Amino acid sequence: MTAANPSVFLLMVNGQVESAQFPEYDDLYCKYCFVYGQDWAPTAGLEEGISQITSKSQDVRQVLVWNFPIDVTFKSTNPYGWPQIVLSVYGPDVFGNDVVRGYGAVHVPFSPGRHKRTIAMFVPESTSKLQKFTSWFMGRRPEYTDPKVVAQGEGREVTRVRSQGFVTLLFNVVTKDMRKLGYDTGPADTQDIPR
Amino acid sequence: MNPEEEKVKIITEESTEDDQEADVGRRRKSSKVQRQRRKRQPPTADPKEMVSEKAHVGSQQELGQEEPETHLLSMPARRGPRSLPPIPSMSRTGFAEFSMRERLREKLQAARSKAESVLLQEIPTPRPRRLRSPGEKVSETGLGTEPSEEVQAAHHRDDSTSYSRIKFRDAVQKIKSKPQAPPGFPSAEEACNFFTFNFDPEPEQPALKAKGKDRDGAKQEEEEGEEESPAGGVSRTDDEELLGDRDTKDFLLGLDPAAEDFVAIRPAEYEGVHTRLEKEKEILFVPSRRAVPTYKKLPENVQPRFLEDEGLYTGARPEMSRTNQNIMENRLLQQDPGRKWFGDDGRILALPSPIKPFPSRPPPLAQELSDKAGLETLYKKAVKYAHRTQHTIGSGDPLGNFQLDIDVSGLIFTHHPCFSREHVLAARLAQLYDQYLARHQRNKAKFLTDKLQALRNAVRSGLHPEKPHQSLDATQRTINEYKSEIRETRKLRDAEQEKDRTLLRTIIKVWKEMKALREFQRFTNTPLKLVLRKEKVNQKAEEEAYEAEIQAEVSELMEEHTEEYEQKMEEYRASYQQWKVWRRAQKAKKKKKKQVEECPEGETEDELSPGEEPTKPALPEPPDRAALEQQARERAAHIRRRPGEPALLPELSLAGSVTPSDQCPRAEVLRREDVKRRMVYLKILFNSKEVSRTVNRQLGADFRVHFGQIFNLQIFNWPESLLLQVYETVGHTSTVLLAEVFLPVPETTVVTGRAPMEEVEFSSSQHVTLDHEGVGSGVPFSFEADGSNQLTLMTSGRVSHSVAWAVGDNGTPLIPPLSQQNIGFRSALKRADAISSIGTSGLTDMKKLAKWAAESKLDPNDPNNAPLMQLISVATSGESYVPDFFRLEQLQQEFNFVTNEELNRSKRFRLLCLRSQEVPEFRNYKQIPAYDREIMEKVFQDYEKRLRDKSVIETRDHIDTHRAVVAKYLQQVRESVVNRFLTAKHHILLTDLVVEDEVPNISIWGLSLFKLAEQKRPLRPRRKGRKKVTAQNLSDGDIKLLVNICRAYDIPVRKPTARAPNGDYSTASLQSVKDEVFINVFDEVLHDILEDDRERGSGIHTRIERHWLGCVKIPFSTIYSQARIDGTFKIDIPPVLLGYCKERSVTAERGLDSVRSLSEGSYLTLFITIEPQLVPGQPVREKFDSQEDEKLLQATEKFQAECALKFPNRQCFTTVIDLSGKTVFITRYLKPLNPPEELLNAYPSNPQAIAELAARYVSLIPFLPDTASFTGVCDLWSTSDQFLDLLAGDEEEHAVLLCNYFLFLGKKAWLVMGNAIPEGPTVYVLTWEQNHYFIWNPCSGHFYGQFDTFCPLKSVSCLIGPDNIWFNIQQYDSPLRINFDVTKPKLWKSFFSRSLPYPGLSSVQPEELIYQRTDKAAAAELQDRIEKMLKEKIMDWRPRHLTRWNRHCTSTLRHFLPLLERSHGEDVEDDHRAELQRQLGDYRFSGFPLHLSYSEVKPLIEAVYSTGVHNIDVPNAEFALAVYIHPYPKNVLSVWIYVASLIRNR
């Protein structure tokens, strides 16, 4: 099973979309999906998911807790195109329309271990004040054609965004055969550990 | 017994009288209060007090009494006195035998011990106190204490240990303490009791006072303590003696609190002024104004440190009065961590004074000229900021201590404000003397004289040539040169000699002036003394030499002048001639003028204008030798020493004596004193930071300051600047920065010991006016009595110094490495920059460069020099090979982790590169293997092949070379288009990224309002637009093509010959061929292949045969751009389908079709879409240049904008882009053009047939979309001749050609822009014939009536004629529902109208099309080759079966094909079938002819393959294949392929 010369390395990510802080909004749910390069392929687990709707906690923290698990394994031959998790948060506006409350993306941590990431969530802005009003009124806020655009750099210069809140993610990362393929992502103090 | 406890007892003892209740807590409290108060007692300033415990306590006492205003300050300095353990035995003995003790103490000199002894003395004799009345006491305190205090305060500033003062104080104390016994005080008995009784068991009385009164209580106690307990007093301090009457009152209160319950009458609560003051003294803190001793401000055992003295820069502290400072210090000390406010030097920390000594605002400018001056702008060239790191040690540089030794030996003022007039002269004299010495040393006059001599000798020898072989000419030239040289040299020598002489004269003059001055002022200030030494000379020899010199000079001058004279004579003659001529002319003119009086005035005046009148030249005078000699002699006398006159050698010495001060007048004395008061020191600034300074030296009377100090600067940075600042201090008052002197940074070769002393001049612009003999600076003064001839001198001087690099222990100079040196420095520049050192040309000369490198001592380890070093190593190693290139980054190699070759060899790297370049083959390559070895070589094969093929024209696939060339060209066009598309893909618009609703207009508003009322879940939901996905987010496999075949019409049905009727037509195979979707319709036949009926019961064995019936081809690009295709398509059914027939259901609905059934054929209704929906790529937004009229272009834009506004879905073309990329107005493409003769001659009588033939011809030209792979990137329109040359084009080219043919044929024809069903936006041709409109599909050659439901054209947006464009503004755009009458402006919006008439645009089409007849032989050859190739292919496709060819059948088919061509594939089926039947009777036959236009072989093969004829598994099947090519003019070929399979019937 364990080949002496592996041709791929594996990256196992589990964790959860823990919570969010959206000071102005309530009753939100989130979607996640992974964006990865051409040399990557998921081997197990769910690449995307949609969470339950959560309401703000009643305490002062006003935190939205999803605790939505992530569990996915990728294989790859090339660290280029390292997977990113793309989050999009939705919730009802005053008229009850489902509108987007934030997009955000973050790379899956490189080094094995437990990582906590807090990412700022943003939404595209309307192109004009009038558009802003109508989109608010119609409940059709500007959205990305695909949430995955937040994981890429190309073409972002044409958009304007506004931050809305934060989402906290927890990752537990396990890699396999990375070092055998010559990639060292561990923390500095473990780098000299003999294989 | 602990003294504290003891004391407590005393308190309680007191209190018991009032209240018998014991309260330990309160007692504690009161004692605490006491302690606190103790703490506030002043520290003992004198260490002597510490000698003994007792003395210490005593002193405390004293101070407590004496300095109530300062005692609070000393709190932190010492521990509370209570904590000091007393020595009870001592106190006891003191009590017992006080006299003895007193003696001892007095002997022991401690003043405070004396004080205590006095106290002690008093205690056992309380009686005298008792005798005094309280009133007395009050009066005494009232009067007595106050002055005493004052006295004390006055004296306290001084040493408090002075004995006499102690004495005095003791006396005061005595006075004070006596009256202090209050009336209600414990009696002697009580006191006795106190000391003899044991109070322990007795319940103690708490301090009865409330908390607020604790203080009073405490006082009370202390008072008591003083009175009664000499023993206990050891631990107590009795500083409350002064409390006076208040104590009394307190005491009263304390005595009988019980009385308060009954007696309401109390004494008026009056507080005397003093009492209040006393109280206030306790509450308020008044900081002392006295200076705080330094040690209080510093941590213990720390010596004050004066940073300034250590050479650190501290800056000037802000001005602050001493008193304020003291108060502040005292206050700070009182605070808890007060010491943090004090610096190491014991002074309050202070920032340097921020106040500048001069105003930053420019002084008010005078009058109007200042306006401009104030606003004047100075241009300063931008200075490039030198990077900071250049001056610091880089990480790569060795860290070391570098040392720069600066030797400042001294300072000489060449002018100073304190200079007296004599000094000024002396300085001038010294300067002149220096000049003289310098000149003397050079002795230029002598040198020039010698030179002159030599030249004269040379001339003389030249005149008498000893070398006859030399040509006379050359000699003459040399002599002339010599002569001119002599002339020059003589002039120079004369000048030099004159200067020497003048200098000497000036020296003497100044000296004389000085002497006069000395005489005048009757004193001497300077020791300068000039001695003129006369040197005896040989008069005779000198006279001779002098005379000879004169003579030589005269003769030379003579010669010169003669020459000059001759020249002048020459000139004179010439000008004289001229003058004569003019004169004559003048005379003639005058004569004429006299004759002709009427000559205009102006003319005459012009002629007579004096400017033009040449003067009569004067005759030059011949040189006069005597005069010349006179001149020479005069000059010689002026500049030269007369012969025989002794040579004067001035010698300046300092041997003179200076008049002592007491003999000088007062002004001079003042000046000298002023000079004495002046001190000078230098600050040394390294990189504009002060690093050290010299000692402050007094200015000498000779205005010289000798420092003689060497400063060793340990440096880390390359010296940017070395600066000496000259400071002058006058007395103790002020320090003035006189001047700044920049020292040059030494060359790296200059090391200590070898550096010469150098002098640097400085000057200051300060203005000083002095009120004594000093002349001041910047102030005009004069030597003359009348004040004329004013001089203004500025302070100036010279600093003599030497700067050198130190030498380390091992002899190496401690110089920072070269790399640190700033390029900006001149000295460094020469070294570091080769160009400035040896010039640009030197760079190319290797040897020169190497030499320079060696000379400049480049650091070979410095990476900056690496390229040079490498070069030099090559150049100097003696190798013959010197590379003719100069590598700049030769170190780069070290950083390459593999060589380039290796990198190129890496397949993985290559693959990654290609993928990132988006090379089509690798664009979507997934999972590039991690190792090279896992990458197959074949991955690159396709790509490499393609690259190879790029240049080579493959002729195998293309039968004729013409087509090959065209194909190549098209391939290139396609590639460039694809590339453009790919770049366009990376150009992202907001709409690509963000979905945002547009701002709704009012109708949408209304609609949406209406929508609000709408049901959320309507019963009949409407189809909603799907979300579009941009292509960039897709990866392979994401796109699914959904094909839904709804129904089909008129599918050929199998003839009932087949046994099993269970076949159906709905089987569709979606072949995901690269670009096109083929929908092939098959008839699936189930054959029972069981031969034996006996086996039928046990098993079913059938064979499925599929018979191809036809196909529908839909390009993927159409689906992609349309997003969804929903419609009915005509199935491309071969003209002959053997074994199938159409159900001829003769129906009535053809009634409308009066001409003929145009809709004959089978149809398939399809719904095709892509999941997810893709956003069609936007056309490249490019603007092309144009040769059209600008007005026309504007009109087109306007027209298009208007149209788009009305009907955004209807596309409107007004301009298109031609092959050269220029915008062309669309109507220029339409022009009647001749079809081939052949076609015209085919049916001379039937124009309809000709039209059809023309359409067929056009349709035979291969179709090739411009938009090669995806989307309408940009549509290029080629003209018809280009189209025919290329033999490829898409709809518009076909349509244009067809339309032009129709126009030629005299039809009314238009181009129709619109949407057709498979193609999407396309161009059709509309004709008007016989009151009917026909719509022609130019690509298929079919035509439809306007009302044909099966017409693929589904919408019409505009019509284009040869002279106008009409945009459809009707409500509907379906051809069925619109009116094609373009004359109605309500239905059609025309481009050219009355407002914009048609300007008569010329056509871009050629005048005439020229057709060559196609070579029939070539066509026949092609036919054979194609047939052969197809046969091979079919055999290839059947690898497991034997493929037999039925020759007989093939030949039959071959004969049949031309027939088909002739009839255009119509109405031949029945005859053909009959004939086949006849010939091949016993075969079950399935086959069909395919008709294609020919472009290349590959589509033919694909077409054959898609029919699936080769898929027959029947073992004994035979095949037949025939190919026929019908050549049309211009190489348009019609290809027929007949393919059939035959199965022999048993």
From TrEMBL, chain A:
Q: Which GO terms describe its biological process?
A: cilium assembly
Extract the InterPro entries matched here: C2_B9-type_dom
Coiled-coil stretches are: none
Q: Does the keyword Aminoacyl-tRNA synthetase apply?
A: no
- Alphabetic keyword roster: Cell projection, Cilium biogenesis/degradation, Cytoplasm, Cytoskeleton
Cell compartment(s), UniProt: Cytoplasm, Cytoskeleton, Cilium basal body
GO cellular component term of the entry, any: MKS complex
Q: How does it assemble?
A: Part of the tectonic-like complex (also named B9 complex).
What is the recorded function of this protein according to its Swiss-Prot or TrEMBL entry? Component of the tectonic-like complex, a complex localized at the transition zone of primary cilia and acting as a barrier that prevents diffusion of transmembrane proteins between the cilia and plasma membranes. Required for ciliogenesis and sonic hedgehog/SHH signaling.
Similarity comment text for this entry: Belongs to the B9D family.
How is this protein named in the record? B9 domain-containing protein 1
Question: Could you tell me which species this protein originates from?
Answer: Octodon degus (Degu)
Tell me the gene name: B9d1
TrEMBL record, chain B:
Q: Which InterPro entries match?
A: CC2D2AN-C2 (IPR028928), CEP76_C (IPR056288), CEPT76/DRC7_peptidase-like_dom (IPR056290), DUF5523 (IPR041510), Tectonic-like_complex_comp (IPR052434)
List residues of the CEP76/DRC7 peptidase-like domain.
1275-1391
Keywords per UniProt: Coiled coil
Q: Which GO terms describe its cellular component?
A: ciliary transition zone
- Coiled-coil spans in chain: 438-499, 551-578
| UniProt feature, compositional bias: Basic and acidic residues | 1-12, 46-56, 211-220, 622-637
Describe the location of the DUF5523 domain by residue ranges: 132-381
The residue ranges flagged as biased composition, category Acidic residues, are: 598-610
Q: Does the keyword Cell division apply?
A: no
Show where the Centrosomal protein of 76 kDa C-terminal domain sits: 1418-1540
Q: Where is the composition biased (Basic residues)?
A: 26-41
Task: Give the CC2D2A N-terminal C2 domain ranges.
Answer: 643-817
Specify where the region named Disordered lies, as residue ranges.
Answer: 1-93, 114-243, 591-643
Its BP terms in the Gene Ontology are:
non-motile cilium assembly; protein localization to ciliary transition zone
Q: Which PANTHER family match?
A: CENTROSOMAL PROTEIN-RELATED, COILED-COIL AND C2 DOMAIN-CONTAINING PROTEIN 2A
Protein name, please? Answer: Coiled-coil and C2 domain-containing protein 2A isoform X3
Q: Tell me the organism.
A: Octodon degus
